[in-house]
Design goal:
The protein has 18 helices and 14 strands. By secondary structure, the chain is an alpha/beta fold. α8 (about 145-150) crosses α14 (about 260-270), α11 (about 190-200) crosses α12 and α16 (about 285-300) runs parallel beside α18.
Length: about 400
C-alpha cells in the first residue's frame, strides 16, 4: 500500500471535532472513512462494529461497552448497532467534551435517522466521497488521460493499492449487494437488484423515469422508488432536481440521476478499457457524471450541502447544471467533445437571453485541454475543473 493521499475533508473533520461533542462521517463503502478518521484522531480508541464480537458486546451490554472506551472512541460502521446511540447521547450530555466520539457509517438511511432521533444538536454530520481529481493529482496518482480516469474511477483502494479496476469493482458490487442491500431491503432476489443497478448506470446523466426503469427491470414503479432510495442512502447515486427558474416556461419537473463515481458506472456498463470508452455512446454521460461528482465532492469536503439544479424546458432548451450560489445562479454546460465547437454555447445563450443575465458569468466544461475566456462565458478544459469548484466554494462561503 502506498502512502496515504491527503484528504481535503480532514481540515473540516478536525474543526468539527473541536466544536461538537461528536462527528458523524458517512459516505459510500470503501470511500476511505476509516483511514481518514484513524489518521485524524490517533489518540481515540478504534472499534469496528462490523466485527461480530464487538457488535455483540455493544448490543448486549452497551454501558460496559462504552466504559471500555471511557476517553472516547471511533465507532466504525455504527449503523449496525443504532440502539447504542442513545447511550452515547447520555455520555456526551454528562461531560460535554468536544470530539469525544467519531461515528462512521456507509448507510445514510439507517445511521442519520438514528442520529437525528438520538443525537440531534450534538453531532456534526459530514460526508466523504471517493477521491477527487485534485486529491489524486496531489498524490501523483491521477490517470494521464480523461478516458482512463473515467474508466478507473476514484475509489481509494484502486489507487492506493494499484488494483485492476474491473476486478475490484466486481468484488465491490458483490459486497455491496450482500451487505448493504440485504441490510436495508428485504430483497429475496439480489440478481434482480443487480439488474436494477446496471439499468441505473445506463441512465446516469439522464432524466429519471421510474416507470420506464421499473418496467425494464420487471418491477413495479413503487419498488423502483424504494430501491432507488437505497442507492441514494448508500451514496451510489445522487439526484439533481430541476431548477425552478421563473421564466414562464413549461419546465421539466423530473430530476436527473447521477452515479457518484464514473468508474463504478462504467464497470456496470461493461466498459473496461479507455479504448472502449472513446467511441462509446455513454461517454458523454460518464463525462457529465464525473463533472457533477467533482462538484458534489467539493461541497462535501467543505462541509456544505450542494445547491445544484439543472434547466430544461419542454421545447428542448437545456443547461446541464445550475449552481445556486451568489446573487445570480451559475449556469454550467458540460460537453465531452475534445474539440471546442461554437454550438457548445447554445444552451447557455438561451439561458442568458431568457434570464437577462450576463453571459460572461456562464461556464462551459469540455473534454479538451485549452482554457478560454470568451464573451459568452468561461471555457474550461477537463484538467481545469478545479477553477469552477473553487469559484463555487468562494461564493458559498461569502
Amino acid at each position: 500500500m502506498g502512502a496515504m493521499i491527503p484528504r481535503e475533508l480532514r481540515q473540516e473533520l478536525e474543526r468539527a471535532a473541536r466544536e461538537w461533542p461528536m462527528v458523524t462521517l458517512t459516505g459510500p463503502r470503501q470511500s476511505g472513512k476509516t483511514t481518514l478518521v484513524r489518521a485524524a484522531f490517533p489518540n481515540l480508541h478504534y472499534v469496528s462494529l462490523e466485527d461480530i464480537e464487538a457488535r455483540s458486546f455493544a448490543r448486549e451490554d452497551p454501558r460496559r461497552f462504552l466504559d471500555a472506551y471511557g476517553g472516547g472512541a471511533i465507532l466504525d460502521e455504527v449503523q449496525h448497532v443504532p440502539e447504542l446511540l442513545s447511550y452515547v447521547q447520555t455520555r456526551v450530555d454528562l461531560d460535554g467534551a468536544r470530539g469525544r466520539y467519531i461515528l462512521t457509517g456507509s448507510s445514510n438511511l439507517l445511521l442519520l435517522r438514528s442520529v437525528r432521533q438520538s443525537l440531534a444538536g450534538r453531532s456534526a454530520n459530514l460526508r466523504l466521497y471517493p477521491f477527487s481529481r485534485d486529491e489524486l493529482v496531489g498524490g501523483s496518482m491521477s490517470p494521464a488521460s480523461l478516458d482512463a480516469m473515467l474508466v478507473t474511477g476514484f475509489y481509494p483502494p484502486i489507487h492506493d493499492r494499484g488494483l485492476e479496476p474491473r476486478r475490484w469493482y466486481a468484488q465491490y458490487v458483490s459486497t455491496y449487494l450482500e451487505r448493504d442491500v440485504r441490510n436495508l431491503l428485504n430483497v429475496t432476489n439480489l440478481e434482480r437488484f443487480a439488474v436494477f443497478l446496471r439499468m441505473c448506470a445506463a441512465r446516469t446523466g439522464q432524466l429519471l423515469n421510474l416507470s420506464s426503469l421499473g418496467s425494464d427491470c420487471g418491477i413495479t414503479h413503487t419498488t423502483a422508488r424504494a430501491w432507488l432510495s437505497v442507492l441514494q442512502a448508500t451514496y451510489i447515486v445522487h439526484l439533481v432536481a430541476p431548477h425552478h427558474a421563473n421564466l414562464n416556461k413549461r419546465l421539466i419537473k423530473t430530476p436527473k440521476l447521477y452515479f457518484t463515481d464514473p468508474g463504478l458506472a462504467a464497470y456496470l456498463l461493461e466498459i473496461d478499457h479507455p479504448r472502449s470508452l472513446a467511441t462509446h455512446a455513454m461517454r458523454g454521460a460518464l463525462f457529465e457524471t464525473w463533472v457533477v461528482s467533482e462538484i458534489l465532492k467539493a461541497y462535501a469536503n467543505a462541509g456544505l450541502d450542494p445547491r445544484l439544479g439543472f434547466f430544461r424546458d419542454q421545447a428542448g432548451h437545456e443547461v446541464d447544471l445550475i449552481v445556486r450560489e451568489g446573487e445570480v445562479p451559475i449556469p454550467v454546460e458540460i460537453k465531452s467533445g475534445v474539440t471546442f465547437a461554437a454550438d457548445f454555447f447554445r444552451g447557455l445563450d438561451y439561458w442568458s437571453r431568457a434570464t437577462d443575465s450576463d453571459p460572461s458569468q456562464s461556464w462551459l466544461v469540455y473534454g479538451g485541454e485549452a482554457d478560454q475566456r470568451r464573451s459568452k462565458g468561461r471555457v474550461l478544459g477537463w484538467r481545469s475543473l478545479q477553477s469552477l469548484t473553487r469559484h463555487i466554494l468562494e461564493l458559498a462561503r461569502t
